[in-house]
């Protein structure tokens, strides 16, 4: 009996192993992908491990990101006795395998059980370009997605039992989500709204449970924000107001959905309509289930989170300025959105009485899904062919690893006089390749006081990477119009200057 219990998840285990192997393939050539965010996480993890501090490579406190993912990397550093960059492929492979396995557990507990549906969804997760992208990099989304799925498991237990231990366990998982990514507040919103909408509980009990969940789940985030404020004066770092209106963000949201569906950019003009159609459809389904007191299911929790997270990204992108709405930002909702848009299909097919119509609907659904899998497989194959030749885009690809300027920085680490400030358009690259700590990023144009302070500096070095072209910060032309820079070294892809008043 016990053996049968474990054997029924053998298909989920196979899918998890396939996901682990996929990450191994993508990281085999150049190692795990490294971006500026990755260097923030890794440098903080190193400082946690070596000094017990939450400082990044530039000597400042970690405020732009919550603390849990760097802490997780520092734990992995202890376990593997090696740097997270070296073992990033293994770490992410295990995380992706865990995500796939938990997804399989969730699907196996749906009200309308279908082994074919489970296999197809697991295959879609394994082959998903969105998932393979984030698990190819050292990004906090890799851990965040897993904590989301664990919250769904825990919160469903609360909806079933309505006990205090189940509520507090769900709140604990939600609290961990919040200190993995600040967007984890969507988990608090999901849980709080679902408690308030739970018609099976008396109103007073709903209010008490909702208040308890809200306080318990936000406590770790509150501590993190207080520490940030005390160390830097800012709770989440400097944030600029958005420059993209809601309508534009909605369009970008829709283009990501088009990409996830494997569609070409020919359908981009209809992207906003697709986004509205999906979100409104999911909201309508939740309202109907709420009125019928049918929110007590894994499917409802999954759908609720997908809607809350999607709306949160649209709103926050309209209020605050960060990178354009893209697949990475929306990736935490990919699995939940995939399930929310498809879980009802097996149940609808099962209700078809006529045998011929039943098999026709079943066959059509499987063919459509197989066509989707075939399409995204070719997208993955093209990406793999590119990255097998050049590496994963970012600081681990050949443009950086074979760069003459990077080689120069690695072999001339002592060319800077101690005590003189070093500025750069990529301070994280100086740390990652040259081991230079304490370098500063050139100021953003938006923050006029920072720009003025920079121009008042009397002596500094400037390390300029020629191919980056970050329009957000002041560039070499801006500086040379105001200051006379002495060029110390000049290579094809970078140069080093010195300014002395």
UniProtKB/TrEMBL annotation:
Location relative to the cell:
Cell membrane
UniProt keyword annotation of Cell membrane present: yes
**Location (main, coarse):** membrane
TM ranges are: 12-34, 55-80, 86-107, 119-152, 164-196, 208-227, 266-288, 300-319, 325-345, 357-377
Keyword set, alphabetical order: Cell membrane, Glycosyltransferase, Membrane, Transferase, Transmembrane, Transmembrane helix
By its UniProt entry, which InterPro entries does this protein fall under?
LipidA_mod_glycosyltrf_83
For membrane topology, the record states: Multi-pass membrane protein
Which residues fall in a coiled-coil region?
A: none
Q: What is this protein called?
A: Dolichyl-phosphate-mannose-protein mannosyltransferase
Q: Which organism is it from?
A: Mucilaginibacter gynuensis
């Amino acid at each position: 009996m016990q053996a049968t219990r474990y054997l029924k998840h053998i298909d989920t285990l196979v899918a998890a192993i396939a996901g682990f192997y996929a990450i191994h393939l993508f990281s085999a050539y150049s190692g795990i992908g490294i971006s500026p965010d990755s260097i923030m996480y890794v440098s903080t993890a190193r400082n946690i491990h070596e000094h017990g501090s939450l400082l990044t490579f530039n000597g400042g406190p970690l405020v732009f990101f919550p603390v849990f993912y760097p802490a997780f990397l520092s734990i992995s550093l202890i376990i593997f006795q090696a740097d997270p960059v070296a073992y990033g492929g293994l770490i992410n492979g295990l995380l992706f395998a865990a995500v796939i396995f938990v997804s399989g557990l969730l699907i196996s507990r749906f009200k309308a059980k279908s082994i074919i549906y489970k296999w197809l969804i697991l295959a879609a997760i394994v082959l998903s370009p969105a998932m393979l992208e984030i698990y190819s990099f050292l990004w906090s989304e890799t851990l965040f997605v897993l904590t989301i799925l664990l919250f769904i498991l825990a919160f469903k237990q609360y909806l079933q039992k309505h006990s205090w231990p189940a509520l507090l366990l769900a709140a604990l998982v939600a609290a961990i989500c919040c200190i993995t990514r600040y967007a984890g507040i969507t988990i608090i919103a999901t849980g709080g709204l679902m408690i308030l909408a739970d018609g099976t509980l008396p109103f007073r009990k709903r209010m008490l449970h909702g208040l308890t969940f809200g306080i318990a789940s936000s406590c770790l985030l509150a501590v993190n924000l207080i520490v940030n404020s005390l160390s830097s004066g800012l709770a989440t770092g400097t944030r600029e107001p958005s420059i993209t209106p809601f309508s534009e963000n909605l369009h970008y949201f829709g283009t990501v959905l088009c990409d996830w569906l494997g569609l070409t950019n020919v359908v981009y003009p209809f992207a906003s309509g697709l986004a509205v159609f999906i979100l409104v459809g999911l909201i309508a389904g939740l309202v109907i289930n709420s009125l019928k007191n049918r929110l007590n299911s894994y499917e409802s929790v999954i759908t609720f989170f997908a809607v809350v997270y999607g709306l949160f990204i649209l709103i926050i992108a309209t209020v605050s300025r960060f990178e354009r709405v893209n697949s990475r930002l929306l990736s935490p909702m990919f699995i939940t959105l995939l399930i929310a848009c498809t879980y009802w299909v097996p149940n609808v097919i099962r209700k078809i009485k006529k045998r011929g119509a039943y098999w026709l609907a079943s066959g059509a659904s499987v063919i459509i899904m197989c066509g989707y899998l075939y399409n995204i497989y070719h997208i993955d194959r093209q990406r793999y062919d590119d990255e097998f030749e050049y590496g994963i885009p970012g600081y681990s690809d050949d443009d950086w690893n074979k760069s003459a300027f990077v080689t120069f920085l690695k072999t001339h680490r002592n060319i800077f006089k101690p005590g003189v400030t070093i500025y750069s358009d990529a301070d994280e690259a100086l740390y990652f390749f040259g081991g230079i700590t304490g370098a500063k990023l050139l100021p953003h144009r938006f923050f006029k006081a920072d720009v003025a302070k920079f121009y008042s500096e009397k002596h500094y070095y400037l390390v300029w990477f020629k191919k980056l072209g970050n329009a957000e910060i002041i560039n070499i032309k801006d500086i040379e119009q105001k200051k006379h820079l002495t060029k110390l070294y000049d290579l094809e892809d970078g140069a080093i200057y010195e300014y002395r008043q």
